[in-house]
C-alpha cells in the first residue's frame, strides 16, 4: 500500500501533520527501527532514538511532534507522519498489514463435546478439545486444540481460547476475552485450615468471573474462592504467569505484568498498573489508578493515584531516595562509629 | 437444611455453644459475609468484621467466642453458633452444601492407555488422556482430560489429576493427592555443567516422590534430580506456579504459597509455611515450623520455629524495625552529614 | 561395569589420576553421596563434604584434587578417580548408566497433522499431537503427546518437545533444542496502548527464534513482539516458569534460573547467568558474562563481567556490605538520635 493510503486509514490521522507530500513510497510491512528495510514503515517514540533516524533504512516513519526529528527524516527523503502518540498510530498501522492466525469455523471431529452443551454460531473448535456438561457458549468463539472446559462454564461472543488452556467448573467468561495457552481459570483456591493432623481442605464452592474484554496471559492462574467469586472486571489485561488468588477482585482497565501475584482476597480498583513480579498480600486494598513498580511488595491499603515501589512498597520518590542511599549504608555506618568514638559514646 | 441440623452435623460442635434456639432458619447455602442473602450461612473471623454483623443479610452466622458479636447477632435475629475457630467450622459447613465436580468412573474411548498399564478399580479416566508403559495406578483414581503420564509412574488410591497436567517418568505419587491443571511433576532438573563450549547436560536419572495427601497447584513444576530423589512429604500443600528444584526435600504438613521457588537441593522441615514469591537458595536448610513472609529470600540455615522476612531473610521483628527505618534513610543521611560538619569530621 | 572400564570411558580421564588399582569394584549405578550403596558410584565436590567420605557406602567416588580426601577414600578401600571438576566427570558417568525415556519413531494414529506439514525422517510423534498448516519439521524429532504446533512453525533436527507444550505461529526452533512440558513459545507479547476507553491491543506480528541447543523449562513462556523478533541464541538454557518478554534478546550460552522474568525488549549478552526470580526491566542492556544473584532487580545497563545482587541491583560486594548493615538500621537510628541530642541538633 502507498504511504498516503496508509495515512488515510489511520484513525488518529486528523491530529497529525504530514510532510514530504512528494515522497510517497510503496509499503509492504512494518518493522522495528533497527531492522527496517526499504518499503517498510517503522516508528520513533522520542528524542533518544533520534540518532536512528539518520541510519534507518525504513521508507516511512511515524514520528513524535518533534521538529528536529521531522527535519532529519525529510532530509533523508523518508516519508513520515507526526503525532503526539506514535505508538498508538503504529499499533493501527500494524493492523493494516497483519492479522493473527484464526482457524476457520467448524468443529474438529476429534473434539469431545457433551450433548448438553449449548454451542453458539460459527464456532471454530479445534482438535481434541473437551467441553463438558452444561457449558453455554456464545457466537463466533475460537477454541484452539487441546482446550478443556469443565461443566457449567459460560463464555460470551467472540472470545478466543488458545491451545491447552483449562477452564474449570462454573467459570463465567464474557465476550471479546482472550485466554492464552496454558492458563487455568476457575481452579480451586488454596484454602486449607490448620488442624492438629495438618490441614483441612476447605472446599472451594465459589467461581471466577471474567468480564468482557479481559485478557489472561500464558500459564496464568485464576482461582475460585470457598464462597462467592473471584472477579476480573472489563478490559483488564493480565500478562503471562500471573497468579490471582481466590476471592480477589481486579477492577476495570487494569494491566498486570508478568509474574505478578495477588494473594487471596486482594481488592484492586480501576486502571491499576502493576509491574512484573509485584506481590500483593491478602486482603490488600489498592485504589484506582495506583501504579506499582516491578518487584514491589504491597500490603494494606494504597491510596488512589499513588505510585509505589519497593518491599514493603512506599511512594515512588521516597523509594528512589532511600534506595540510592542503600549502597551508602557501609559508609554511613563507618561515619557513625567515628562520631560515637569522638563523642565518647559507646554502644 | 435447618440450622439446627447443620449444627448437629458439624464435628467441632461439642466445643461450641448455641443461642437463639427459637430462631432456626432454613439454609440453602453458604456465602461470603458481604454477599450473603436470606437462607444462607456465613462466618466472621474476628472483631474487625463486627460492623458487618449489623448489615449482613445472612440468616445464620458462625461467630468467634466474642460476647459482643453474639449479642449483636441475637438482636438482629440471626441464628448463630460460636467457636474458637470459625474458619474451621465454616469449612465443614461448606462441605455440607457443596461437593466439587467429579466425573463418573469409566474410561473415555479416546484415552490412549498402554497395554502394560495396571489400572486400579473404579478409575475415571477422561478424554484424550495418555498413559504410557509400565504405569501402575491405584483404585478410585480420577484423571481429567488431556493428562499425560510418562512410563514407569506409580499413583496411589483416590488421587486426582486435573486436566492438562503432566507426570513424567518414574514419578511416585501417593494416595489422596491432588495435582492441579498444568502442573508438571518429574521433569528433568536444571542440571548443566559449564564447559568451554557452553553447557554439558547432566542427565537427570533420579525421580520425584509425592507422599500421601500432597496437593500441587496449577502450573507448578517439580523437577527430578540427577541422582536420588526430590521428595514432598505427607500432607504438604503447594499453591499455584510453585517451582521445586531437583533434589529438594519438603517435609510434612508444609504450605507453600503461590510463586514460591526452591532452588536445587533445598531441605525444608515439617510444618514450614512460605508466603507468596518466597525464594529459597540452593542447599538451604529450613527447620521445622519456620514461617517466611511473602517475597523473603532465604539462604543458608534457618533455625526451627523462626519467623523470617526480607531478602536476605532476617527474623521477623528485626525486619519490621529495619524496614520501618528504610524510608527514613534520606533523613538519617542528612543528619549524619550535618553532624560530621559540626564536628569537623569526614568528607 | 567395572570401575576401571568406567574410568576408561570418561572423556576427562586424561587430566586425572587413579589410585587403588587393586580395588576395582563392579558398579551398577550412580547415587547421591548420602544414599549410595555398595556397587554404586558417587562424587564429592569439595572439602565440606569430607566427613561423608568416612560414612558413605559407595564403592567408588569421583573426588576433587585433594590429597586428604583421597587418602580417606583409599583407607576405606573405596575406588576413586580425582579431577579438577568432579561434577563434570560425574555428569559423564551418569550418562554411562542412564538414558532418558525416548519414544520409538512413529506417528500415533490419533495425531492430527495438516496435509501441508513437511515431516522429517524418523519422527516420533505422540498421541493427540496437533500440527497445523505449513509447519516444517527436521529429522529425528521427538514430539510427546498433546503438543500443539500452530501454523508456519519450523523446527530443526533432533529437537525434543515434551508433553503439553505449545508452539505458536511462525516460531523458528533450531536443532537439538528441548522444550519442556507446558512451555508456550511464540505467544502474543503483552502489547497494549493506553487509550481513553482503556487499552488498544497492538497486534504482535513478529515471531520467536530459538537457535540450536536452546532448552526451555516447564511452563516457561516466550512471547513474540509487535514487529521483529524475540531471540534466544545458541545453547542458552532456561529453567522452569521463566518469562521472556516480547522483543527480548538473550545471547549464547546463558543460563536463566527458575522464575526469572525479562520484560519486553531486554537485551542480554553471552554467558549471562541469572539466579532464580531475577527480574529485568524493559529495554535493559546486560553485558557479556554478567551474573545476577537470586531475586535481583535489574534495570538500565550492566557492564560486562559484573556480578550484581539486590533490588535495584548493585555490585555484589557492595550489596553484601549494605545488606549486612540493613539489620543494624534500628541500632544506627538510635545512635544517631543520641548524638543529635548530645550535640543539641534537632531533627
From TrEMBL, chains A, B, C:
It holds the Pfam family GMPPB_C. It is an enzyme of class 2 (transferase). Residues 108-187 form the Mannose-1-phosphate guanyltransferase C-terminal domain. It comes from the Bacteria. Pathway: Bacterial outer membrane biogenesis; LPS lipid A biosynthesis. Its EC number is 2.3.1.191. Keywords: Acyltransferase, Lipid A biosynthesis, Lipid biosynthesis, Lipid metabolism, Repeat, Transferase. GO terms for molecular function: N-acyltransferase activity; structural constituent of carboxysome shell; UDP-3-O-[(3R)-3-hydroxyacyl]-glucosamine N-acyltransferase activity. Residues 24-96 form the UDP-3-O-[3-hydroxymyristoyl] glucosamine N-acyltransferase non-repeat region domain. PANTHER family: UDP-3-O-ACYLGLUCOSAMINE N-ACYLTRANSFERASE, UDP-3-O-ACYLGLUCOSAMINE N-ACYLTRANSFERASE 1, MITOCHONDRIAL-RELATED. Belongs to the transferase hexapeptide repeat family. LpxD subfamily. Homotrimer. This is UDP-3-O-acylglucosamine N-acyltransferase.
